[in-house]
TrEMBL record:
Pfam families: Integrase_H2C2 (PF17921), SH3_Tf2-1 (PF24626). Coiled coil: none annotated. This is Integrase catalytic domain-containing protein. Residues 76-246 form the Integrase catalytic domain. It comes from Austropuccinia psidii MF-1. The keyword Magnesium applies. One of its GO terms (biological process) is DNA recombination. GO terms for molecular function: aspartic-type endopeptidase activity; DNA binding; DNA-directed DNA polymerase activity; metal ion binding; RNA binding; RNA-directed DNA polymerase activity. The keyword Nucleotidyltransferase applies. InterPro entries: Integrase_cat-core (IPR001584), Integrase_H2C2 (IPR041588), Retrovirus_Pol_polyprotein (IPR050951), RNaseH-like_sf (IPR012337), RNaseH_sf (IPR036397), SH3_Tf2-1 (IPR056924). GO terms for cellular component: nucleus.
Length: 347
């Protein structure tokens, strides 16, 4: 059947894609249905465009193919404890007589040496600053840069002013994104596994001598256990590496190992990612992966929310969008791996 009426064309497209009997199936299946029923000039192009600009499909379909965002090499420090990675392990049962519930993970980017500090979830920015001053800075000296996720502690004006006074720079990663602070994230995962293996589902355990311990008291032992194995990025144990680099520069072999480790990680990462081409003013959809508060069954909730306008490009791997509705008060900064272009039907 040859169609000349725009009304009939729109009806055919709606019937073969939007209707409940068509089920919003893929463009290939929609093309097959249209092909067997009707024809008009540019029918294939219009059918594909109709499927691509379907709001329900864009919001409900899971993202396939390569994700946006190539790996960026963070500038390496020249000396130990110049650059720190920081993050918190939370949702732990209260420990010790001081009722510690999270602990702070600090990792030196140069040597990858960890420092683990039990703390409280209600600690203020000043509490955290004093903890760093008494337990870290007094031993390592003043650092130049901190890489961390967006924690309320860092958003506090007092904390920011404190670091301005120290002439250090806060380098926030983007919301729900672990690449820039992946060093601490990987260590957190390892430590959580270590604690889980020892303490199982309780906050306490008994050793072979019958003494009772909780997760807080085993932190020093876990810290040492993490430093003992040989790490691929340096080719040494953290214990031997830490003492050596405090006295001398990295050897040529260590530098090669570090560069090879990054080159391998970048090559592996970039195989499944591509360079984004977003611009300010573009409409994009935001992944609902990290928004657990959205109403409805978890299995049936839309994979993406939006569309929203891009307000700013933050480097090549992050954007700031104009959130609205129930997301208005949420962090508007997203890595490009959690957004996708919105295809508008309006021309």
């Amino acid at each position: 059947m040859t169609l000349c009426s725009r009304l009939l064309i729109n009806t055919i497209l709606h019937q073969f894609h939007h209707s409940i009997y068509s089920g919003h199936l893929s463009e290939e299946r929609t093309l097959e249905k249209v092909k067997n029923c009707a024809w008009w000039p540019s029918w294939r192009k219009e059918t594909i465009e109709f499927c691509h600009t379907c709001d329900r499909c864009q919001n409900a379909n899971r993202s396939t193919g390569k994700k946006f965002g190539l790996m960026i090499h963070i500038q390496e420090p020249k000396f130990p404890w110049e650059v720190l990675h920081m993050d918190w392990v939370t949702a732990l049962l209260p420990s010790d007589d001081k009722s510690y519930n999270p602990f702070l993970v600090i990792v030196d980017r140069y040597s990858e040496t960890p420092i683990l500090l039990p703390c409280h979830k209600n600690d203020t920015a000043m509490d955290t600053a004093l903890l760093l001053w008494s337990r870290v800075i007094s031993h390592t000296g003043l650092f130049k840069n901190i890489i961390s996720d967006r924690d309320p502690k860092f958003a506090c004006a007092l904390w920011t002013n404190l670091h301005r006074l120290f002439e250090t720079k806060l380098s926030f990663s983007t919301a729900y994104h672990a690449q820039t602070d992946g060093l601490a994230e990987r260590m957190i995962q390892t430590l959580e596994d270590m604690i889980r293996r020892i303490c199982a589902y309780e906050s306490e355990f008994k050793d072979s001598d019958g003494f009772t311990h909780d997760w807080c008291t085993i932190i020093p032992a876990l810290e040492k256990a993490y430093k003992t194995p040989v790490h691929s990025s340096t080719g040494q144990t953290l214990l031997s590496s830490s003492f050596k680099i405090m006295l001398d520069k990295l050897t040529h072999h260590e530098k090669l190992s570090r560069n090879d480790a990054f080159d391998y990680a970048k090559q592996k990462w970039d195989k499944s990612h591509k360079m984004p081409a977003f611009q300010v003013g573009d409409l994009v959809l935001v992944s609902s992966l990290n928004y657990n508060h959205i109403k409805g069954a978890k299995k049936l909730k839309a994979s993406y929310i939006g569309p929203f306008f891009i307000l700013a490009l933050l480097g090549t791997n992050a954007v700031q969008v104009e959130l609205s509705g129930e997301l208005e008060n949420k962090n508007p900064t997203f890595p490009v791996s959690l957004i996708k272009p919105y295809q508008s039907a309006d021309k």
